[in-house]
């Protein structure tokens, strides 16, 4: 059996990447996982029938899946920020949390190194150095540190996210070694008249797949309980052992080591305040459910 990756799905036709070539294939029998259809990003086993047509036989178990855009088996989220436009760190935090939930490696990229000052870079490294797999300062335009970014995505399936105009598409164009142009996926939700079911990932180097998303994505925290939010802050879990309560949420409990660390400047205050905001937001949503 041969192995391929679904890189595009349009109207029931799945395009498989295999050994640097792309093969269209209709799915003969419905391959379903937890009642979900085959998705872009799925790794499948296939064979050629007697007419040379591709027949998908089965798919590997999914590591994870995103809903917007609908893509499976994401390894890395490249979260792009810059000083212009000014970053919304609260949204960045949400993406990082989502990465932990979905078992995706968050790589934080500060783009436009030519415009970024030391202060800005220092702040970002202070706030995310612990949580992100890597914090890189790069420039798409001036071609700075692009090799470092390449190292992070090589052989992986990656989603590029971050607010509009930070330079996601510019970076992808510079990283792209293939002759195919990387296009942004449509984020249409299907409510309108023109429901697009078209989604696609691009193989910019052998076995390196990327998806460019317009604006922010990876923001739905629908499966997180407020009481468990702190588990996704790796820098909090190391302090947890010293909190009085075993299940401390680090919000209103007495003798909380995280709060103490914030007061003593051992835990970043901005990050902690954003944690409280996200905590309250989830808490509110939990209340509204009942
Ligand atoms: N100064 C500077 N400008 C850059 C750099 N990289 C990209 N830009 C500019 O930033 C602007 C936005 O870049 P895009 O790549 O379109 O941004 P995007 O994140 O894809 O934006 P959306 O598609 O709207 O989400 C463009 O005008 C780029 O030329 C850089 O390293 N330095
Ligand atoms: Mg773009
Ligand atoms: Zn605590």
- Structural class determined from secondary elements: alpha/beta
CATH superfamily of the largest domain: P-loop containing nucleotide triphosphate hydrolases
Q: What is the residue-averaged pLDDT?
A: 88
* Ligand names: guanosine-5'-triphosphate, magnesium ion, zinc ion
Give a count of the beta strands, DSSP E runs of length 2 or more: 14
Number of domains: 3
CATH class descriptor of the largest domain: Alpha Beta
Helix content: 25-40%
Biggest β-sheet: count, sense, barrel? 6 strands, antiparallel
Q: What fraction strand?
A: 15-25%
Radius of gyration: 21 Å
Give unreliable regions as ranges: 189-197
Gross CATH architecture of the largest domain: 3-Layer(aba) Sandwich
How is the topology of this model organized?
Blueprint: E1 2-10, E2 13-18, E3 21-26, E4 43-48, E5 54-59, E6 65-66, E7 71-72, E8 76-81, H1 89-102, E9 105-110, H2 118-128, E10 134-137, H3 146-153, E11 157-161, H4 168-175, E12 199-200, E13 202-205, E14 208-212, H5 234-240, H6 257-263, H7 269-289
Parallel strand pairs: 8-9, 8-11, 9-10, 11-14
Antiparallel strand pairs: 1-2, 1-4, 1-12, 2-3, 4-5, 6-7, 13-14
The chain binds guanosine-5'-triphosphate, magnesium ion (MG) and zinc ion.
